[in-house]
TrEMBL record:
It is a single-pass membrane protein. Keywords: Glycoprotein, Leucine-rich repeat, Membrane, Repeat, Signal, Transmembrane, Transmembrane helix. Transmembrane segments: none annotated. It comes from Oryza barthii. Coiled coil: none annotated. This is Leucine-rich repeat-containing N-terminal plant-type domain-containing protein. Residues 37-69 form the Leucine-rich repeat-containing N-terminal plant-type domain. The keyword Repeat applies. It is found in: Membrane. InterPro entries: Leu-rich_rpt (IPR001611), Leu-rich_rpt_typical-subtyp (IPR003591), LRR_dom_sf (IPR032675), LRR_N_plant-typ (IPR013210), StomDev_PlantInt_Reg (IPR052941). Its main location: membrane. Residues 1-22 form the signal peptide. One of its GO terms (cellular component) is membrane. GO terms for biological process: post-embryonic development.
Length: 762
């Protein structure tokens, strides 16, 4: 039981001693003995609630859950309306304002509105709460509160539990008021901005009864402080993760807190060597530290931390795996449950002693520099549920002997160990069923058809990553019965047609394979699918209208196939951000449903047979950054509405049948970096290079070749500070090359061929 749970239990035991609790009901009741005045205050509070999706307050007429009154006095003592504790769920959150009527609950001791969408005036913390002097418990965590934390909270001198974590804009410039709360045991200010509070260690040190202190994500800048007397002798949990500490580890004040059972220093910039005093923190059960690669831990400091159950170290400068495990082996082989040692530049070969940590349920050694083979002793970890050895340089083979004892295994990640080979044989009987499997860029050792166990082992999996493995064979026909949410099989040799997909699938990658047939002739079967990449296959024929069922798509890539016909006239594609159909044989006009895709960023319809005009609604896509339409049969003028695309960086209209003047809209595209209009019939005003081009200061690549421009090259041609490629060949330019062209300091490629240019090269 962690310190937070112990403290909550402590409070509940205290409440149970003084209150009559409805222990048989999952929802506590509002007894009939509540005083009329306080009943009316609660009903006024209810009138401020504008949204109650689960009907928690529907029957607040006479009695209802979430309220406890004293059987002796009738006063309201508790108001508990937390939302799905401990996880916020928007679908069940109460919505509205916190009525000042609650000020009438003068005897209130517990107030919990956490994880609801409730706010005070102007979205701020309701200041009247500071007038409820009998409160011992306040939990407003996960509420969208803004503004300053009121220092008047220091008037609630009986307060033992205060949690204001995870608001959306709360801050404090002075937390001196905390010194007026002598009974405070739990303080949660996670994500409250305390960047202007420099003396926070001195203040919290005056709250000698603190058991839990959570100041994660508070933008604190310093943990340097010296104390003549350290008062936090009862503190068990300290969370200082995600702050802005930038100092030597040894200068931090908290290393002498020997009572700590939980210490989280994740995501700070603490550098140098861990102090020797870490080895004296023998009560530690959970220790988390992720940094930036400038920290060093001597393995012997962990030797006497015999109560550790979770060790999470990331971003260390270097370490040897054998030395590290030897230190932990001193007294932790039967105790430690979770060992995260990712991204630490750990070197060496995984020792056989790893098999002695028989209580491990999680082992993460990812993103290191481990070499050599995986020892067979890994099979002795019978409690192991998750193993991650990805992003190393492991070699040798993983065989059935390695996996035989891992009966609890649910997640395995061997991604990107390119010289590690997995050899299990066709007749292998797996002792587990995986939920997550990542074998991308390994050597699966699977030839021709997949073995019979391959899909059986993943029948319950939610994530399967097998990309870049040369896997052959076809997808199973019963995929609609699987639980997969993420399926990544890109860059293999998978053949056959796409079956009906799993109903919970949200991510699908089977690009760079040998799939054939059509795209879902009947139904896709994955209504929640958000990401689909089937590019670079042999998929043929028209695209089925069943693709319109995928209303949650935000990424669709069907490029480099043999698709033909018109894209179906879908309705409701509102989430699309990427839409790639390039290099097919699709025809018809630019799909009209795209005009409703206001989130679209990347559009590529190139190398098809689309015809007709570029529609005027193309300018109604406010977020688009890339439009690539080259090698089609598009014609007519460019609509002036394209000037609305202020985020457009890449526009390729080349090799179409566009004609007319290249209008001044180009000068109104402030973000344009790549402009390719070659192989059309464009001209500028009087056929010259359009002068408004000189406003495109971000241009890096300009291609006007194979058009009908003529006249002299203007002197401002050298005013493009970022241009690297300038292609103007096959026009009718004449005269001399302006000397300003030498100002193009970043120029890599220049093509002026097949014009009427004369004179000398500057």
């Amino acid at each position: 039981m962690d310190p937070t749970q112990k403290f909550l239990l402590f409070l509940l035991v205290g409440v149970a001693a003084t209150l009559s609790l409805a222990t048989n009901s999952p929802v506590p009741q509002w007894p009939a003995s509540c005083t009329p005045r306080e009943r009316e205050a609660l009903l006024a509070f209810k009138r401020g609630i504008t949204g109650d999706p689960t009907g928690r307050l529907t029957s607040w007429k006479r009695v209802e859950g979430g309220v406890r009154c004293s059987n002796l006095t009738g006063h309201v003592l508790e108001l508990h309306l937390w939302n799905n504790f401990p996880r916020y769920d928007e679908a069940t959150a109460l919505v509205g304002h916190i009525s000042t009527s609650l000020i009438s609950l003068e005897h209130l001791e517990h107030l919990d509105l956490s994880n609801n969408n409730l706010v005070g005036p102007a979205g701020r913390f309701p200041r009247f709460v500071s007038s409820l002097r009998n409160l011992i418990y306040i939990n407003f965590s996960g509420m969208p509160l803004t503004g300053m934390v009121p220092p008047q909270l220091g008037n609630i001198t009986k307060l033992q539990y205060l949690d204001l974590s995870h608001g959306i804009g709360m801050y404090s410039t002075d937390i001196q008021w905390l010194t007026n709360l002598p009974a405070l045991r739990y303080l949660g200010l996670s994500n409250v901005n305390l960047s202007r509070v420099s003396d926070w260690p001195r203040v919290v040190n005056m709250n000698s009864y603190l058991i839990v202190l959570d100041l994660s994500g508070c933008s604190l800048t310093s943990a340097s402080q010296s104390f003549s007397q350290l008062n936090l002798t009862r503190l068990e949990k300290l969370d200082l993760s995600y702050n802005n500490f930038n100092q030597p580890l040894a200068s931090c004040w908290f290393w002498n807190l020997t009572s700590l059972t939980y210490l989280d220093l994740t995501m700070n910039t603490l550098s140098g060597q861990f102090p020797d005093s870490l080895g004296d923190m023998k009560a530690l059960q959970v220790f988390k530290f992720w940094s930036n690669g400038h920290s060093i831990i001597m393995p012997n400091l962990l030797r006497n931390l015999c109560n550790l159950e979770i060790l999470d170290l990331g971003g260390l400068r270097s370490c040897n795996i054998t030395e590290l495990l030897d230190s932990l082996m001193h007294c932790l082989t039967k105790r430690i449950r979770k060992l995260y040692l990712w991204n630490n530049n750990i070197t060496g070969t995984l020792p056989t002693g790893v098999g002695k940590f028989t209580s491990l349920d999680t082992l993460d050694l990812s993103d290191n520099q481990l070499t050599g083979s995986v020892p067979y002793e890994i099979s002795m970890l019978t409690s192991l549920a998750k193993i991650n050895l990805s992003l190393n340089n492991l070699t040798g083979e993983i065989t059935k002997e390695h996996l035989a004892g891992l009966k609890s295994l649910k997640s395995i990640d061997l991604y990107y160990n390119p010289y590690l080979k997995i050899v299990l044989g066709d007749e292998w009987l797996p002792p587990f069923r995986l939920e997550v499997a990542r074998f991308g860029s390994c050597q699966l050792g699977i030839n021709d058809q997949l073995p019979h166990w391959f899909w059986t082992i993943f029948s319950r999996a939610t994530e399967l990553v097998m990309s870049s493995n040369k896997i052959s064979g076809s997808l199973p026909t019963n995929m609609e019965t699987m639980s997969l949410e993420h399926l990544l099989l890109g860059s293999n040799q998978i053949t056959g047609v796409i079956p009906i997909l799993p109903p919970n699938l949200i991510w699908l990658e089977i690009q760079n394979n040998m799939l054939s047939g059509s795209v879902a002739s009947k139904t896709f079967g994955a209504p929640q699918l958000g990401f689909m990449d089937l590019s670079s296959n042999n998929i043929t024929g028209p695209i089925s209208g069943s693709i319109c069922e995928l209303l949650n798509l935000d990424y669709l890539n069907l490029a480099n196939n043999h698709l033909e016909g018109e894209f179906p006239r879908c309705i409701g594609f509102k989430n699309l951000e990427l839409f790639h159909l390039n290099n097919n044989s699709l025809s018809g006009k630019v799909p009209s449903f795209l005009k409703g895709c206001k989130r679209l960023k990347y559009l590529d319809l190139s190398q098809n047979k689309f015809h007709g005009r570029l529609p005027s609604w193309i300018g109604d896509l406010p977020n688009v950054e890339r439009i690539i339409l080259n090698n089609n049969l598009l014609s007519g003028h460019i609509p002036t509405s394209i000037t609305n695309l202020t985020n457009l960086q890449h526009l390729d209209l080349s090799q179409n049948k566009f004609h007319g003047r290249l209008s001044s809209w180009i000068g109104d595209l402030p973000a344009i970096q790549i402009l390719l209009v070659n192989n059309n019939s464009f001209s500028g005003l009087s056929g010259k290079v359009p002068s408004f081009l000189k406003g495109c200061k971000q241009l890096k690549y300009l291609d006007l070749s194979h058009n009908k421009f003529h006249g002299r090259l203007p002197s401002w041609i050298g005013d493009f500070p970022e241009v690297q490629i300038l292609i103007l060949n096959n026009n009718s330019f004449s005269g001399h090359i302006p000397t300003s062209i030498t100002d193009l300091a970043k120029l890599i490629q220049l093509n002026l061929a097949d014009n009427n240019i004369s004179g000398v090269l500057p």
